[in-house]
Amino acid sequence: MWRRRKKYRLNLVAILVIVSLILSLYSFYANYTSASEKSYTTYIVAPGDTLWAISKRFYPDQRDVLEGVDIICEANSQDGKPLEPIIYPGQILKIPTWR
């Protein structure tokens, strides 16, 4: 009888630890996704525009302009292929913005 109680308590503790771990991971994930929730602005490429200039315009606080270019290229990927770094006047780009 004593062994059954000990086993029962051990199982109960293990279940409680697992549940608390799952809840804390869920809480972390919910905070992370809400903080980094993206919305998009559309931008029509004008003659003479470059991805570099567009990146500097939409992400002025970013130290590395190339990182902004990568973000724009990834947001405009098609069929899993990233946008080529060549853009054309009249092309519509999705520019990610964070809330």
TrEMBL record:
<protein>
    <submittedName>
        <fullName>LysM domain-containing protein</fullName>
    </submittedName>
</protein>
<feature type="domain" description="LysM">
    <location>
        <begin position="41"/>
        <end position="95"/>
    </location>
</feature>
<dbReference type="InterPro" id="IPR036779">
    <property type="entry name" value="LysM_dom_sf"/>
</dbReference>
<dbReference type="InterPro" id="IPR018392">
    <property type="entry name" value="LysM"/>
</dbReference>
<feature type="transmembrane region" description="Helical">
    <location>
        <begin position="12"/>
        <end position="29"/>
    </location>
</feature>
<keyword id="KW-0472">Membrane</keyword>
<keyword id="KW-0812">Transmembrane</keyword>
<keyword id="KW-1133">Transmembrane helix</keyword>
<dbReference type="Pfam" id="PF01476">
    <property type="entry name" value="LysM"/>
</dbReference>
